[in-house]
Please model this.
Amino acid sequence: MSNLWRVTTDKVSREKENIMRTGNIYQIANGYMGYRGTLDEFGPDELVGITLAGIYDRVGDAWREPVNAPNGGFTKVTLDGKDISALATRIKKHRQSLNLANAVFERETDFKSRGKILKIKSTRFLSADQPNSGAIKYSLTVDKAARVRIHTGIDYNIWDLNGPHLLKLTAKIQNGILLVQGITGETAKKVAVAEAIDLDFGSETQETRGNKNLRVIKLDAEANKTYTFYKYFAVYTENDPVKTSVEEAAIKKVQEAKGCGYDECLNRHNAQWAKKWDYCDVTIEGDDDAQQALRYSLFQLLIAAPIQGSANSIPARALSGQVYKGAIFWDTEMFMFPFFLYTCPGKAVELLRYRIKTLEGARRKAKTEGTGYRGAFYAWESQESGDDACTYFNIGDPLTKRNLRTHFRDKQVHISGDVAIAMWEYFKITGDDSLLLEGGAEVILECARFYYSYAYFKKDKNRYEILDVVGPDEYHERVNNNAFTSMVAKTTFEIANATVNYLKQKYPGRFKALAKKIDIAGELPLFVEAADLLYVPPPDEKTGVIEQFDAYYQLKETTIEALKAGMVHPDEYLGAGQGLAVPTRVIKQADVVMMLNQFKDRYSDKIKKANWEYYEPRTEHGSSLSACAYAMVAADIGKLDRAYRYFLQTAKIDIEARYKTYVGTIFIGGSHPAANGGAWMTAVLGFGGVKANAEEVAINPKLYKKWKALRFKLAYKGDRFSVRITQKDVAIVPDALNKSDHAFRVAGQSIVCRPGKLSFVKYR
Ligand code: IFM
Model:
């Protein structure tokens, strides 16, 4: 296995900040749960976290956040009566690694204690085949005979940011299976963890001590003999569609896993992983650095992808912890969704089903926010019901410790259009209209309805305007005619109109029923008018620059360095109220540039270049979502060196764990799936120059000079393709099992790609 499929370190840190970052880098997940990359003997102080997808809880007035499960992977050893731990024992050698091919975490540590060497090796995975379960192979060897005690079981000292979320925790052993069960405080959902073990040495007793349900294995270990045992654990919650109790389900699952055996469980897990990579791997020939960072980014997306049938989505910090409330933001639709859409549409569906599932929450928000609106105003920070988890005072000031009023929740209205756009993209690129019929069309129409009720018609100007919003640049709140937001709203009207036309033509009965259900027929002509008359700030006739919002040019001109020199605290937030960036033209993240990427067909290269050059020096990149937008537009306009720099920035964010961990007083350390999605977009859509629509797939290569070739997979209209782009040509191999011919346009040249037949186009 080449090291491009592995992330490895021989360092082990005892410092909390490093443990936190390492825990993020080495995390594994399977869409159902995430397990941070911590060591077997670690506990809540080292941020051990098994974060569950789609189950949330609130304690008192604190933020609702996802629930962390008890840790069924816990094991700690004593050697001749002395506790062994990477936190305190002398370490002779350590190596830990994450295999990106199959999401298997491995650690090997040689400890020195009481004059003896103890080698520990453990390997763990969360099954991609059986998402409720995980398995661990644990081995130890001593160089001299020693008295060893292995404490292994379930640790229910749970790391929570705003917990405790699991109440009435009980521990027991039943037919050799350890069980811990608790119940969430807010919605009384049971969560159960079971653990079984496969062991053929030592003598075993059970004890429950200090919130640990443990087996104690006594072993008089012989010198240089390796002792190996296997652990199986399973987590169930009352969100799972089980017919029995969660406790019984968890017990059954570990019994099955034990019956199957570690190697076979691993084989089945590996088979699932082989399929995942087969659909989506991207290879960059000639640039190992970029290759590894990109593959790691894809890995992050794959581990976070929701499990089939869950209608869950991906939180802004994925399953790396409870950060950002485990909430789903626009990050998913605008930054992660394209990867799934173009590689494994089955997962893209799940993300959209989540928005269909939470439509009622979006309707509730529309009714109750501000002066009250119609339609669907999706939550800025969305959890299981779609009600907004974002608070009005969402950022703490590190100096005064007061919470600052932010308008992310009530004014960042582009979120609804982001959802509608993704819904329509899915239909365009897959050709599958079932999602529209399943609720997608209703989502789109309700989003258009929301914008209509939010917009103002200016009679004197004969136009609609979207006023009082926050665009992607969150340093400037309550602005008028934000280019990004207005374009998103206009596009939503266009999509709503296209949806109506499509349904009327193809499913007239279904259309009538939907129009009646949501009583929208009378509003449809207004959507047609709004699509036409909604104002989006145009490029300046001379400079080509688009003013980000009304009166942006009246703000103070300064540099980012000068602005930051005025900071009195390193974590100080630059926006909200009196934030340093508020009176200036310094912006938090790509805004107009984000628009030019999202709607790239509507603007010329000249306009894109003018805006990229104008906004780039004014962008602080205070969000991990920013770099990829700059990378993609740079690739689009041929600024390939700059594109490459921004590409590496977005692709390396998690593998290098270089990011800020606080904004104001809020802990935001965790993984960055939006940036990971941005890495895929930059590679394939940016440097690869791929742009598909309902009619064809266009490929206009913009390969970076260092890259000899870029290979990737594409899913389009239910069929699959392998593409290889070099500095001179493009080769497309449609899967032999494809059902149809498909139109491609490579560097302006139209071709038809037939199942199993190579198409080859020279473009330079
Ligand atoms: O959605 C983003 C937002 O654009 C900037 N702040 C962080 C959020 C979550 O990633």
